[in-house]
Specification:
Layout lengths: L4 H4 L2 E6 L5 H15 L3 E6 L2 H5 L3 E4 L4 H10 L2 H8 L3 E4 L1 H6 E4 L9 E6 L10 E7 L2 E7 L4 E5 L4 E6 L2 E7 L2 E4 L10 H12 L3
Parallel strand pairs: 1-2, 1-3, 3-4, 4-12, 5-6
Antiparallel strand pairs: 6-9, 7-8, 10-11, 11-12
Helix pairs in contact: 2-7
Bound molecules: glutamine.
Length: about 200
């Protein structure tokens, strides 16, 4: 599918602004676009209409049960699925991309995986640890982070912390357990943007 880029020549990345650490994602996405020298808009989105105009969407950390309920009520879930808009989900965002979790809650179900919420413990068990993706090291900030328990055949594992899966990709959808938006490292946002652009024809 050709992204909306064709419409007005400006790619639009929507940062889902229903709940969670949205401003940090907006800021780091803008930096990533600057680093890549890509002329694109990154902006907060709250409605199905705004979602519909996006070439890609980022779902932040926060409370996945709340965000899940709101994407259903606003019709945002239907638009993402119908238009196959690529999504990058961090932490609670990872949970929402899953087809299954250990808890009954509304999900997007666009990465074939089972996710366990709060897999590393509670808020007080939050930690920072260097992690590895495609051979490169990244700072990992884990806050009530989920982990992937099971993946389907089409789902690629991109990062593990010892035996625990903390990063996956299916098509242009990417989910990670941790919070790059709480660091100054823009590389994962750049990676997502490049993935979206690579499928631009
Ligand atoms: N545990 C939260 C959830 O499942 C996610 C926490 C976070 O995004 N920092 O919604």
């Amino acid at each position: 599918m050709r992204p909306n880029q064709a419409r007005n020549n400006t790619m639009k990345i929507g940062i889902l602004d229903l709940q969670g650490d949205v401003s940090e994602h907006l800021e780091i996405t803008q930096k990533a676009l600057d680093n890549l020298n890509i002329k694109a808009q990154a902006e907060k989105i709250r409605t199905a209409q705004e979602t519909s105009d996006c070439d890609a969407i980022i779902i932040s950390g926060g409370e996945s049960t709340v965000i899940g309920q709101l994407i259903v009520e606003t019709g945002i879930k239907d638009i993402i699925i119908q238009k196959k808009i690529p999504v990058f989900g961090t932490c609670a965002g990872m949970v929402l991309l899953a087809t299954e979790t250990d808890y009954e809650q509304p999900l997007l179900g666009i990465i074939d995986m089972k996710v366990k919420r709060n897999a590393f413990g509670r808020q007080k068990d939050s930690f920072e640890q260097e992690i590895e993706i495609f051979g490169d090291k990244y700072p990992g900030v884990f806050i009530r982070a989920p982990a992937v328990e099971k993946v389907g055949k089409e789902t690629q594992i991109i990062s593990q912390l010892e035996d625990t899966i903390i990063g996956v990709k299916q098509g242009r959808n990417i989910a990670i357990s941790f919070h790059p938006e709480l660091t100054t490292d823009t590389r994962l946002h750049e990676y997502f943007i490049k993935e979206v652009l690579n499928c631009a024809e």
